Amino acid sequence: MIKVSDVRFAYGSGFSISIDTLTVTTGEKVAVVGPSGTGKTTLLNLLSGIVVPDTGQVLLDGEEISGLQDHQRRQMRASRIGFVFQEFALVDYLSAEENVLYPYRVGKGLKLDRTARDRARGLLADFGLGQKMRRRPAQLSQGERQRVAIARALVVRPRILLADEATGNLDPANKAAALDLLFAQTDETGAALLAVTHDHELLPRFDRVIDFSELSQTS
Ligand SMILES: Nc1ncnc2c1ncn2[C@@H]1O[C@H](COP(=O)(O)OP(=O)(O)OP(=O)(O)O)[C@@H](O)[C@H]1O
Description:
Rossmann fold; 5-stranded parallel β-sheet; 8 helices; globular; binds adenosine-5'-triphosphate; ABC_transporter-like_CS; transport
C-alpha cells in the first residue's frame, strides 16, 4: 500500500510539486496521466525514495520511506519496490539476465539462488527474450530493453510496483503482454501498482485513473 500525505518537494531549479493526499491500496492498479513536464516522474521518484520530500510523509506498507537513510532506501527499493524507469536504467556491462537479477545484488535479505535465476529466466522467456538473455543492452532493440526493465521490476515479486511509461516503446502485442504481466503480478502478490502512462487506450484496464494536474499543485 502507498500512502502520501501533505508532501511538498522542490528541485533546486524551482519546480515544485505539492500533493495533499494519495493512496493506492493493496492489489490496486492505478494509472497516472497528465501533460509532459508536470511532475509525474518526480512523483514516482518520491514514492521510491530516489528523492526525499521537503515536508510530508510517504508510507510504503506502513513504513515511512522518507525517514530512512540513503543506503536503507536503496536496499528497500531493491527488495520491495519494482520500478520500471522511463529510460530503463539498465547496466550497460551486464547481460539481460544479470540486469534482471540486479535487485539481488542490492536488496536486503535477497538470495541470488537457483530459484531467483529460474524466475529471471522465466520472465525473460515470457517476454520473448528467451534466446537473448546473454545479450547486453546495446545488443537489444529499444522495445527489448524495455521488456528487460519490466522483468527486473517484477523479479523479486515486489509489494509496490511503479512504472514510468513502461509500455511506451512496445508494439501493441507486446504492450498488452507487458501489462498482462504487470497486472498478474499485482494479482498474485497483492502489490499496489502505480503506472504513469500516455497510452490512453490502456486506461480501461486500470481500476482507477488519476489526472496528475488535479492531484498536484505544481509551480
Ligand atoms: N533533477 C532535476 N533537477 C531539476 N529539475 C528537474 C529535475 N528533474 C526534473 N526536473 C523538472 O521538473 C519538472 C517535472 O519533471 P518530470 O520529469 O517529473 O515531469 P513528467 O510529468 O514526468 O514529464 P514527462 O511526461 O515528459 O516524462 C520539469 O520541469 C523538469 O524540468
